[in-house]
Write a structure and sequence with these properties.
The protein is mostly helical and about 110 residues long. It is built from five helices and two strands. It is about 50% helix and about 5% strand.
Length: about 110
């Protein structure tokens, strides 16, 4: 089985908890860079699935990495803020942008 098929299989096996988590996050909207609940729930799920979770990366309490296994990395980016306007006006976003952290994604065009 190739890695894409293995990933699809894992996602399918965990479909219900993933959809439940998605609904939970949607039911508790949080402003950009203030997604503490969503971040916690995502990290708990990933930790429970055997990932090594590192919270607070890039000097942002709501940013994290999760890693497992060996081999080439895969990246999943998820946007959790409730409103796009709040994201770019958030004091945390401005501080992160001003720091010009090389790991921080730039502003959307």
């Amino acid at each position: 089985m190739n890695s894409k098929d293995a990933a699809r299989e894992k996602i399918e096996q965990n479909r219900k908890p993933l959809v439940d988590l998605s609904h939970r996050i949607h039911a508790h909207p949080e402003l950009g860079f203030e997604e503490e609940k969503a971040c916690g729930w995502l990290c708990e799920m990933l930790d429970g699935a055997g990932f090594k979770v590192e919270r607070g990366i890039c000097d942002l309490p709501t940013a994290f990495t999760a890693s497992a296994g060996a081999g080439p990395p895969s990246t999943i980016a998820c946007r959790r803020s409730a409103t796009p306007a709040a994201t770019t006006s958030s004091p945390r976003w401005r501080r992160a942008r001003e720091s010009r952290s090389p790991k921080l994604l730039t502003t959307p065009a």
